[in-house]
Design goal:
The structure is a homodimer. Chain A has helices spanning 10-17, 21-28, 36-49, 55-62, 76-81, 83-98, 114-122, 140-147, 166-169, 182-195, 211-223, 239-252, 264-276, 296-299, 311-327; strands at residues 67-72, 102-107, 128-132, 151-154, 176-180, 201-204, 232-233, 258-261, 286-291, 305-308, 341-345, 348-350. Chain A is of the alpha/beta class. Chain A has a six-stranded parallel beta sheet, with helices on one face. In chain A, strands 7-6-8-9-10-12 form a six-stranded mixed beta sheet, sandwiched between helices. The longest helix of chain A has 17 residues, at 311-327. At the A-B interface, helix 4, helix 5, helix 6, strand 2 and helix 7 of A face helix 4, helix 5, helix 6, strand 2 and helix 7 of B. Chains A, B: One of its GO terms (molecular function) is transcription cis-regulatory region binding. Chains A, B: It holds the Pfam family LacI.
Chain lengths: 355, 355
């Protein structure tokens, strides 16, 4: 272990610059009231000695850490297996770097660790949090509320629909989120399949404890209100889940002629099963995904027709909204009440060979 | 943005429990000297009110954050593209979770952001740092030394070999690292190729500003001290780099009959080029990789003979050494002097079809 060299102290800087401790402290903490030649002398001494202020003490004064936490409510293994998160992080990282704010990704093994995440958020280590992939029964929103850090959610939080944690109703301002138009995108996908003359259109859902999956299912139902219930198969946004769901679908509804899958990873599992069974895409069964995850959506066989959402832009926008809010803390940015408010980005149908 | 509900204060807890502020503070900070029935009353009030102590203030007292930073000296995009890092993080995450310590991954866009990483490390937000993928000219080691946080490095730091930052020589204890036996593994790979009767054995290196790449090249040279210099091609640990290097190799040395690639990603690029050129593996050219990265090494065509290192175990061991060192701070754990000391894990040759 690399033990510390003795770190240069505030006193050492003061001695080097020939000023008082209080003067150094004021300069280091960005305070005013120090004449420029003196301030310059302090800054030079700081540079020469490699002095780093104790941020724990400093942040008690400045209340700013120049760091933003990102919390993905999934186990670390999923965060690295699903390219969706890498794309969102790329957008966030670019935006935070442009503001010289440190991206602090809090990884966990699973939901049992969320209390610890809440403690870190409450601990005065970050200026705010970006939180995504929330699940309905996750204690994280309550923990975040208690932690009292400004937060922007990725995806509409589901707890507005009757399941809100009691704490969010009283006192707190409304949560702010960035989302894609999941319901509208799903409708466009199903309308496209109807336009191709398909009659037995199935939907393989995402994890229904997430609003993105619920909204895509609602969009499907908007267009197919009388769908045979066996044509709706619950799944979990993964390729393996897509394979399982497609096998079940072929067993129960051998006459299915189109599948709208809740995301591209699910669709990739669907395509694998159809190839296995010797079924042609799109001739026998048309397939549409969701996300337009590249390069995956272009490299499947056949290339995937899908609903595009700009995942990287979602991340960038979340970071921008959080930083903007921090700059106007105490202003009129936060709407009252517990009803979530958010920005919903448009989605567009991208046509390739699979439908 | 979710603005804070008013957070319950220390005073509110004291009022609820019917004790003094000082008593609450002592219980919350794990101090002794509070009788059990009283302490229990405080803990109940803390639970009921959802009180979270201000960690910035608290950590000034306890000096412990229950959080460990992980710094990967690569841009965020590479961290997510190279499965090596996901494996190391998996080992680290498991170990930290078992100790209820929060994994704080500090992501950057690139080397320009390392000064900010240094500030976060110095800022009193974490108990220690795990640092990997260091490059020789990276300012990070100096910044980490200045930050004064206990650190374990993944991979032998290269700056012991004459290029050590001046700060590390004086005063600081030796850096501690965990590494794999890169040189021994490279030797075993080349000896295997020699044993197969190969005579024109090439090496495609990794990024030579990293000790892992240097050590593998040294292992190659141990076995092939008189190798034709055109048989050694510098590359960068990526599939695209492997492709470029293999094309160069075939152009300059068309009689090459074996390739030892610095890692499996490089080898996957090599195999792609050989297939393109209609060369058979292993009949025309035998190929060996390094890492035994799964599932990649089993899914290449043909499956890859490679040198196995236990990447996840490296991560786990780094975390264990750091946490162990924290528990005995001030003890005799830290060796003196500036010479790095470390644990080197064995590597083993895994034979599949490519050699």
């Amino acid at each position: 272990m690399t033990e510390a060299m003795s770190r240069p102290t505030l006193e050492a800087v003061a001695a080097r610059a020939g000023v008082s401790r209080a003067t150094v402290s004021r300069v280091v903490n960005g305070g005013d009231g120090v004449r420029e030649p003196l301030a310059e002398r302090v800054r030079r001494a700081v540079d020469e000695l490699g002095y780093v202020p104790n941020q724990a003490a400093r942040s008690l004064v400045t209340k700013r850490h120049d760091a933003v936490a990102v919390v993905i409510a999934e186990p670390e293994t999923r965060v690295f297996a699903d390219p969706f998160f890498a794309l969102q992080l790329r957008g966030i990282s670019k935006e935070l770097t442009a503001h010289d704010s440190q991206l602090v990704l809090l990884l966990t093994e699973g939901r049992d660790d969320h209390a610890r995440v809440g403690r870190y958020l409450a601990g005065g280590h970050v200026d705010g949090a970006l939180v995504f992939s929330l699940h309905l029964d996750d204690p994280l929103p309550v923990l975040i509320q208690r932690a009292g850090v400004p937060t922007v959610f990725g995806g509409r939080p589901g707890w507005s629909e009757g399941s809100a944690p009691s704490e969010t109703a009283a006192g707190a301002a409304a949560p702010v989120f960035v989302d894609s138009d999941n319901r509208g995108g799903a409708r466009a996908a199903v309308r496209h399949l109807v336009g191709l003359g398909r009659r037995r259109i199935a939907h393989i859902t995402g994890a229904l404890d997430q609003t993105s999956a619920v909204d895509r299912l609602d969009g499907f139902r908007d267009e197919r209100p009388d769908a045979d219930p066996r044509l709706i198969v619950e799944s979990d946004f993964t390729p393996a889940g897509g394979e399982r769901a497609m096998r079940e679908l072929l067993d129960n509804c051998p006459d299915v002629d189109a599948v709208f899958a809740a995301n591209d990873l699910t669709a990739s599992g669907v395509l694998r099963v159809l190839r296995e069974r010797g079924l042609r895409v799109p001739q026998d069964i048309a397939v549409i995904g969701f996300d337009d995850m590249l390069p995956l959506a272009e490299q499947t066989d056949p290339p995937l027709t899908t609903v595009r959402q700009d995942i990287e832009e979602m991340g960038r926008l979340m970071a921008r909204m959080l930083l903007g809010g921090l700059d106007r803390r105490g202003g009129d940015a936060a709407p009252g009440g517990g009803e979530p408010s958010g920005v919903v980005l448009p989605t567009t149908l991208v046509r390739r060979a699979s439908a």
